[in-house]
């Protein structure tokens, strides 16, 4: 049996792009040939991110000046995330794919900063969306996310794997093709760090997981949006955004790799259900930000409880909430939408 057949049998194939970056194909079904070479002539890959420390705020800042030249809203037919065909040579050498994850050509990490940035495409269909993915594809995306979380967390220069999606030009997505990103940080970023500190304090005082407590309190309450046997989707009591939902397991699970495949599929279906509700809010697809809080690679794992957070700054069909000075300067959020009303609306959609 050839080496290629061995990797293909697991529906996961890792190959190299022309500049040496890794690309991993995750297929819905095993047995695909993913050996198509990258025919582009690319300059050598040289990530140049730099990690600096803001002493006044006590937080890290990444400086990645080379990213100014990255692809921005390409013309139709020039999409770097569509499969390659004819003269159009994209980031994905194959003529079609299911899910791929590859090293970002314009990374915010790597270089002297350490860590790694990946781009993860949910579908080869340019005009698709996460919310419209069929169940078998949701399962493949969940498998790819778990794979990347576990593999990147093993690197000595990675302390936190952050999976996210920015959808919509209105909130700064530079490519319309359905995709997410993975930032494998060389440190635990400030927001999860603060949340883990709160969870650790609660654990110390009460001997229980904070998120387990919150999920149990929200269950059957007025802010539930959708649920399954193992997971709850709810609007937080102190939501910061007009529409904001957490999706979390009812019991302690540190990260996606800790779920078995059946539970992971169940979670992915609920997560997609939440995104469909966001898309149904307005006449046009809702811009949203979605991301996963997972346990750090090797610290504070006993205080961590996996959850996804999805929100949109779209407060009416034609109005976006912009972060005001109280929010960016003071960290003090002001929400114009009653969380219980937002939950009722999302529940009905
Ligand atoms: Zn595309």
Describe this structure in words.
Strand 10 and strand 11 (243-249) form a beta hairpin. It is globular and about 55 Å long. The chain has helices at residues 3-8, 135-153, 190-206, 210-218, 261-279, 325-328, 339-348, and strands at residues 12-16, 22-26, 50-54, 59-63, 99-103, 116-121, 160-167, 179-185, 224-227, 231-234, 243-249, 288-293, 307-312, 314-316, 319-320. The protein has a single domain (1-349), classed as 2-Layer Sandwich (HIT family, subunit A). It starts with a helix and ends with a helix. By secondary structure, it is an alpha+beta fold. The chain has an 11-stranded antiparallel β-sheet with strand order 1-2-5-6-8-7-12-13-11-10-9, with helices on both faces. It has a two-stranded antiparallel ribbon with strand order 3-4. A two-stranded antiparallel ribbon has the order 14-15. The longest helix is centred in the middle third of the chain and has 19 residues, at 135-153. Mean pLDDT is 93; it is low at 1-8. Helix 2 (135-153) packs across helix 5 (261-279). It contains 7 helices and 15 strands. Zinc ion (ZN) binds next to loops.
């Amino acid at each position: 049996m050839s080496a290629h057949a061995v990797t293909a049998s697991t529906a996961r194939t890792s190959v190299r792009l022309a500049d040496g970056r890794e690309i991993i194909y995750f297929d819905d079904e095993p047995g695909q040939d993913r050996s198509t070479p990258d025919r582009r002539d690319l300059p050598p890959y040289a990530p140049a991110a730099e990690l600096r420390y803001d002493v006044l705020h006590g937080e890290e800042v990444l400086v990645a000046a080379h990213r100014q030249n990255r692809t921005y809203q390409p013309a139709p037919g020039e999409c770097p995330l569509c499969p390659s065909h004819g003269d159009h040579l994209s980031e994905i050498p194959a003529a079609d794919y299911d899910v791929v994850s590859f090293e970002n050509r314009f990374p915010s990490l790597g270089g002297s900063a350490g860590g790694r940035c990946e781009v993860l495409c949910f579908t080869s269909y340019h005009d698709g969306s996460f919310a419209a993915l069929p169940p078998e594809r949701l399962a493949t995306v969940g498998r790819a996310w778990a794979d990347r979380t576990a593999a990147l967390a093993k690197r000595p220069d990675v302390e936190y794997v952050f999976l996210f999606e920015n959808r919509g030009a209105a909130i700064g997505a530079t490519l319309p093709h359905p995709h997410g990103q993975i930032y494998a940080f060389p440190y635990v970023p400030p927001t999860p760090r603060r949340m883990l500190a709160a969870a650790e304090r609660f654990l110390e005082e009460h001997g229980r997981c904070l998120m387990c407590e919150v999920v149990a309190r929200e269950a059957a309450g007025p802010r539930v949006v959708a649920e399954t046997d193992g997971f709850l989707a709810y609007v937080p009591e102190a939501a910061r955004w007009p529409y904001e939902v957490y999706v979390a397991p009812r019991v302690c699970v540190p990260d996606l790799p800790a779920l078995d495949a059946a539970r992971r599929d169940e979670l992915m279906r609920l997560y997609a259900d939440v995104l469909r509700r966001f898309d149904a809010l307005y006449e046009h697809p809702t811009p949203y930000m979605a991301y996963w809080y997972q346990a750090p690679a090797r610290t504070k794992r006993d205080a961590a409880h996996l959850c996804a957070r999805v929100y949109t700054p779209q407060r009416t069909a034609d109005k976006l909430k912009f972060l005001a000075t109280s929010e960016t300067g003071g960290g003090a959020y002001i929400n114009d939408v009653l969380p219980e009303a937002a939950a009722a609306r999302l529940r009905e959609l």
